[in-house]
Amino acid sequence: MKCIFCNEILEEQVLLESKNYKVVFDIDPIQFGHLLIISKNHVMDIRDITPSQFIELIELEKSIINVFEKYFSVTGISVIQNNGTIMDEGTHFHVHLIPRYTEDNFWGNQNVKQQKIPLQELQSKLKSITD
């Protein structure tokens, strides 16, 4: 399948560009100003980017959040990232920046089918990361 991020983003759609990322408006926004930070490299997962690319991503997120909070009446920004096969078909690694407002009902609109996992096992596995 052809990747829309690699093949279909037009130069005039790019709002901001860094060495490894492009920033565009989301084509199906949750909120006005909903942005995507898209990796220029076709990688499927945050674990595939280098430490320097990760730092660049975080710095870019911080800069964009500063613009939203300095110039617009947002309460904050939700940063959402999908990894691996859960992403929409025809895309690769990207981060959503969604402007948030008091009482915007963002979390009230989530309709997630719950899937049980053994929480004690998760807790144990997380603890082993730092051991």
UniProtKB/TrEMBL annotation:
Pfam families, per the entry: HIT
Residue numbers covered by motif Histidine triad motif: 92-96
HIT domain span: 1-107
Domain of life per record: Bacteria
Biological processes annotated in GO: methylation
EC number, as in UniProt: 2.1.1.-
InterPro entries (alphabetical): Histidine_triad_HIT, HIT-like, HIT-like_sf
Keywords, in A-Z order: Methyltransferase, Transferase
Any one GO molecular-function label of the UniProt entry: methyltransferase activity
Protein name: HIT family protein
Organism: Kurthia gibsonii
